[in-house]
Specification:
The protein has a domain of 136 residues. The longest helix is centred in the N-terminal third of the chain and has 5 residues. The strands form nine sheets. Strands 1-30-29-28-27 form a five-stranded mixed sheet, with no helix packed on it. Strands 2-33-32-31 form a four-stranded antiparallel sheet, with no helix packed on it. Helices cover 3% and strands 44% of the residues. It is mainly beta and 410 residues long. The N terminus is likely disordered. This is PPP2R2D. InterPro entries: PP2A_PR55, Ribosomal_eL30-like_sf, WD40_repeat_dom_sf.
Length: 410
């Protein structure tokens, strides 16, 4: 699957826009497979802790500052007797509660199953109350590279420093591939989505789901598209949105009707240049709620910003690179990229080992190279998974997690 699709012709008329280097540090996932993507998803956990959902069904929990890690087996390869097909163990989606308790609740999904677990560090309650884990903590800005590259007889990430217990485990809850799970602000409800449906769960039980959205009705009208991502609004407890390969973001409210009610829709339109060639691909792979009124979307080569109060007017459209016709005959057309934000600044990856940074406050755009990844157009150089927590940016490439402390906003 990996390889070079095109070369300089693919990035036709590529613009060199303020390309600088983020000084990233990294750690490797301890799995041996050089042919597949190692990371299924990543999520910020607590302070400088990161959750990595791996393709082998393992959840890796790492505290990058305290040199602690834990590997927790979540899923094994399974077989669906009803559909007569294998269920891969790869963790495709996860979300965790936003509280800062001694135990964190994490929801995880593979292709068809959802599991809820509780994770905590191996320490006593007294140690937790005294915050002993912070006594010897060194600022991430002062952490030296040799901490993670030091040649010793034992790997500093070998020892498990976390323990977990399974709370709920529900199988074959979706017929198609689960691509998203999301908790609302109060942690009361959980939504899960596959390619065609979105279901609602009570997060404290997971006994039975309630279907909110089924796009099969729209497919009967001749349209062919799927749901790419679903998430709750971080600023409204009852509003959730989903994006599609048709270039739409649809917002629904679960308090208006029992099966939720559609409140607004945003459209990302394909555009062409003067030679009638496509300049923007409309399939939306991810989106984020910037505040109560603004939404940012990510397609393969574009970031768009919309205002909920004026759905027909796009506030900003930022091209990440120009494309030519060769992209439509390559596997690159199917690549999906996550987008994250902090204080109005958007961060998203590329297929050339770069992070695109878009400041929505000043409407400024630039790119940052990630040291350690080749700056060539290859799928294996892609940075598709990205998240931010407490001023630290995390991104994944193959079996490496890169992280850096973001500069304060000026």
């Amino acid at each position: 699957m990996f390889g070079i699709f095109g070369n300089s012709s693919f990035l036709k008329n590529k613009k060199e826009i303020n390309t600088n280097i983020f000084k990233f540090k990294s750690f490797e996932l301890n799995i041996k497979n050089s042919f597949k993507e190692k990371v299924g998803c990543i999520a910020s956990f607590r302070d400088e802790e990161i959750l990595v959902g791996r393709e082998d069904g393992i959840l890796q929990v790492t505290n990058i500052n305290a040199n602690k890690t834990g590997n927790i087996e979540i899923f094994k390869k399974d077989f669906d007797l009803l559909d007569n097909e294998n269920i891969k163990e790869c963790i495709t989606a996860m979300d965790c509660t936003s509280d800062n308790s001694i135990e964190k609740t994490v929801f995880l999904a593979n292709e068809k199953n959802i599991k809820c677990i509780k994770i905590k560090e191996r320490m006593s309650v007294i140690e937790w109350m005294q915050h002993s884990k912070y006594k010897n903590r060194v600022s991430l800005q002062n952490t030296t590279q040799k901490v993670f590259n030091q040649q010793t007889n034992t790997n500093i990430f070998d020892k498990t420093e976390y323990e977990s217990k399974t709370i709920f485990n529900v199988g074959c809850v979706h017929k198609y591939l689960i691509n998203s799970i999301s908790l609302n602000v109060s942690n009361e409800f959980l939504i899960s989505s596959d390619l065609l449906k979105i279901n609602l769960w009570k997060s404290d039980r997971l006994e039975q789901s309630f279907n909110l959205v089924d796009i099969k009705e729209k497919l009967d009208c001749g349209s062919i598209f799927v749901i790419n991502c679903t998430k709750f609004n971080a600023y409204n407890d009852t509003v959730f949105g989903y994006c599609t390969s048709q270039g739409q973001v649809v917002l629904n409210d679960i308090k208006i009707e029992p099966k939720s009610s559609e409140i607004c829709t945003f459209d990302v339109q394909e555009s062409r240049n003067s030679d009638n060639e496509f300049r923007m691909i409309k399939s939306i792979s991810d989106f984020v709620f910037l505040d109560e009124y603004k939404i940012a979307t990510r397609t393969l080569n574009n970031i768009s910003i919309f205002d909920i109060r004026h759905t027909k007017n796009k506030l900003k459209n930022q091209e990440l690179f120009d494309v030519d016709s060769s992209i439509f005959s390559s596997d690159m057309i199917y690549e999906k990229f996550k987008i994250s934000h902090q204080n109005g600044i958007l961060y998203t990856g590329t297929l050339t080992g770069e992070i695109c940074v878009f400041n929505t406050n000043k409407m400024e755009f630039n790119k940052r190279k990630v040291n350690g990844i080749e700056n060539e157009l290859q799928i294996e150089n892609g940075i598709k998974h990205i998240c931010i927590k407490e001023g630290t940016l995390y991104c994944a490439n193959k079996d490496n997690i890169f992280y850096t402390r973001l500069p304060p906003n000026k």
